[in-house]
Design a protein that fits this description.
By secondary structure, this protein is α/β, with parallel strands linked by helices. It contains 27 helices and 21 strands. It has an eight-stranded mixed sheet, sandwiched between helices. The protein has a seven-stranded parallel sheet with strand order 11-10-9-12-13-14-15, sandwiched between helices. It has a six-stranded parallel sheet with strand order 18-17-16-19-20-21, with helices on both faces. β14, α18 and β15 form a beta-alpha-beta unit.
């Protein structure tokens, strides 16, 4: 029997689950079993848990449906547990180093006890000093092992479930479980405290709790706050049935109603139904108030008396709930001209247009990427939706015929942004754009993250300086309703990099649909349009941006590469979109395609890809064509930009460190041999999970047509997909 069973629910925290599991596996005391509780075998968290289980036999994942909530996940974990003591750890929290050794030593001192309370550290997600809210509560506990009667202030409802270890036999003997619904920690903690006979405390930090940027889910607005009353009623009813001593019952009553009153006085938690909440709380207060209970002093005591009398109007006046002044002006956009500012405010007062969608790609660089693919599919499946693309003035001339557009900064630009119900972007809309109630923002992204993104860039000075205000960035993230993902890796990294309350859509990238729908005739046509000579092997060279460089540098002598790689090789040069305004660089066997609108067309035309660390490799892998990584400055790039995984360990094909190595793999054919194909297959399995040619359809059906998730077409298995054919190479 292991000493500890550590139960880790993981719903909604897949992006940080690996850190939680790693913190357990890194403990100096190894006598434990680790039980991640995942939504299902195909959930993002399940992939993380399965990877850890393959590496360590102590990891034993189990599954609990999301509908069962946190309580169901923990109860499932408890049923699977075999350890002497149960520990609970949220999926985005960690055990501090040496935590299990400290608990084991304390339990050795105390012998068998029912509950061991310990301290935890609340760490702000961004800035601020960590706090230890358990320390003052536990500081008053008697030394050694004690009966709960000697510590009436330890009611079990003030601390979360992951701030204590519970003897499994004690939990089983008393048939304790987490009650369903929200505020389940209060119910479980209170019931456990009622049944415990031998208790001790460990006055050291065991768990480091990461405070989410979105805040505690329990503090979000909604009628779920009524469930706090259910938990209070449950615990107090059991306490009365048990005949709890007066001092303990008084403390329990006071702690529970402190939480009830805090919610009653918080208008944002209950935007409606506050009166109904107060009245029910008042009835529970009078029903459960212990004989001889004395309300605390000060303002809190006044609230107790008003709750007891049911005086909602007086309570509301006391707490200033009437003073909900509007702060709309603080959130208004900041167009430069006064007339434009007033015009935007005017349109914001008009109703949303339920049939208007606004699209933007790459900060207005034209009709491209995921927004363009969604737009095209919406014209087919949702013709009732009118669409407007936003475009910078110097890109307006390149907009395709038949595509309605508005020039960024114009009066019409601000009008459609104010009125549109649907707003789709692969970057972010302007700082001053207001997220109106009822509007739907879709963040499509524009690549799979190898390099750090969002707030993960904060520890890399060069990148952070260019990013600007992270607070403003997160303000833009707060506008998102949906965020697209093309693989589980992306889902997890977006959750870390852009913490918010949006919903992940694991539908694939719409721009990649064409890699499965294009025909051989399409490929031939695109090659002719780009000027690729008949019968030549077209190698796409697409390096990424270097934050520590001031301009575009190819990093290669491309003419020399062509000479050394073979006479049939031509290079399609595509610089990062930051440099799409650069002049043409075509010469000899080099064809500059940087300014070509569609990177998808360029990929279809190419027989092979050479890139360094650009996310284009993840998209190109859908074509199952050879990929070569040119990594001449990997160490520098990794240190200055930061990366999410080591590309050198699991590349999509051969890795070349010098120009000579790069030319050699093409000259001897190893860029397309069986070893290259095997590496590419592993890469595709990991990063081409959801791209199957129907991503745009899924987005349109879910967002514009309102179809439920279960009605959305499922992803076609990778083995059954047929990519567009290459022009000169036979796919391995």
């Amino acid at each position: 029997m292991p000493r500890f069973s550590i139960i880790v629910p993981s719903h909604g925290v897949a992006g940080r689950l690996a850190q939680a599991l790693d913190s357990v596996l890194a403990q100096s005391s190894g006598d434990f079993e680790l039980i991640p509780v995942c939504d299902g075998p195909d959930s993002p968290a399940a992939d993380v848990a399965a990877g850890h289980a393959r590496r360590d036999s102590r990891v034993a994942p189990v599954h609990s449906p999301p509908s069962a909530g946190l309580a169901g996940a923990r109860n499932t974990g408890m049923r699977a547990a075999t350890g002497a003591y149960l520990l609970f750890l949220d999926g985005d929290d960690v055990l501090v180093p040496g935590a299990l050794a400290a608990l084991d030593a304390r339990l050795t001192e105390t012998g068998d006890i029912d509950v061991l309370h310990f301290e935890h550290e609340r760490t702000p997600w961004w800035e601020g000093e960590p706090s230890n809210p358990a320390a003052p509560v536990l500081a008053t506990a008697p030394p050694g092992v004690f009966s709960p009667d000697r510590a009436p202030q330890l009611t079990g409802v003030q601390l979360p479930a992951w701030s204590a270890a519970y003897r499994r036999a004690f939990v089983t003997d008393h048939q304790l479980h987490f009650p369903g619904g929200h505020f389940t920690d209060i119910g479980f903690g209170g019931l456990a405290a009622l049944k415990a006979e031998r208790v001790a405390v460990e006055c050291s930090v065991v768990v480091r709790h990461l405070v989410r940027r979105q805040g505690n889910r329990l503090n979000l607005p909604g009628e779920h706050h009524f469930e706090l009353l259910d938990q209070a009623d449950l615990v107090l009813t059991r306490a009365t049935e048990q005949g709890l001593s007066g001092e303990r019952l008084h403390a329990l009553f006071e702690h529970l109603f402190a939480a009830v009153l805090k919610t009653a006085a918080h208008p944002r938690r209950l935007p409606s139904q506050r009166r109904a909440y107060f009245r029910r709380a008042s009835r529970l207060y009078r029903h459960h108030r212990p004989a001889g209970f004395r309300a605390p002093g000060g303002s809190l005591g006044v609230q107790h008396r008003l709750l007891a009398s049911g005086s909602y109007a007086a309570f509301r006046a006391l707490r200033g709930a009437n003073q909900q002044a509007s702060r709309t002006l603080e959130h208004l956009p900041r167009p430069h001209m006064l007339r434009t500012r007033l015009l935007y405010q005017h349109h914001l007062r008009r109703p949303l247009d339920p049939h208007l969608a606004v699209y933007c790609a790459y900060w207005g660089r034209g009709y491209a990427c995921n927004p363009a693919a969604i737009h095209a599919k919406a014209r087919e499946l949702a013709p009732h939706i009118r669409s407007v693309f936003l475009v910078e003035p110097d890109h307006a001339h390149a907009m395709p015929d038949g595509i309605d557009y508005a020039v960024i900064g114009s009066h019409r630009y601000w009008e459609v942004l104010a009125r549109a119900k649907y707003l789709i972007n692969n970057a972010n809309f302007a700082e001053g754009v207001v997220k109106r109630p009822g509007s739907v923002h879709v963040q499509t992204q524009h690549g799979t993250p190898l390099k750090t993104m969002g707030v993960d860039q904060s520890t890399y000075p060069v990148v952070a300086a260019a990013t600007g205000s992270f607070a403003k960035l997160l303000g833009r993230v707060d506008r998102w309703d949906y965020n697209l993902s093309s693989n589980r890796h992306s889902t997890q990294m977006w959750e870390r990099a852009f913490p918010g309350s949006y919903e992940h859509l694991e539908y694939g990238y719409p721009r990649n649909d064409v890699y499965y729908t294009a025909t051989a005739d399409d490929v031939a046509r695109i090659r002719r349009e780009l000027g690729v000579p008949e019968g030549k092997t077209a190698v796409l060279y697409a390096p990424t941006h270097r934050d520590h460089h001031t301009g575009f540098e190819t990093g290669l002598d491309l003419e020399a590469f062509c000479e050394e790689a073979g006479e049939d090789v031509v290079v399609l040069l595509r610089a990062h979109y930051f440099y799409d305004r650069a002049g043409k660089k075509s010469s000899g066997r080099i064809i500059d395609v940087t300014a070509h609108r569609s990177s998808e067309d360029v990929c279809l035309a190419a027989d092979a890809l050479v890139t360094d660390y650009s996310s284009i490799m993840f998209d190109y892998a859908n074509l199952d064509r050879p990929i070569v990584v040119y990594a001449d400055d990997w160490e520098v790039y990794r240190e200055t930009r930061g990366v999410y995984f080591d590309l050198m360990v699991a590349p999509p094909g051969p890795v070349a460190r010098t120009p000579q190595d790069l030319a050699r793999v093409f000259r001897d054919g190893s860029y397309a041999d069986s070893r290259s194909a095997a590496g590419r297959a592993r890469f595709r399995e990991r990063f081409c999970q959801f791209d199957d040619g129907r991503a745009a359809e899924r987005v349109v059906r879910r967002v514009f047509l309102g179809e439920p998730p279960e009605a959305i077409p499922p992803v076609i298995p990778l083995a059954e997909r047929v990519p567009a054919p290459a022009a000169t190479l036979v796919r391995s």
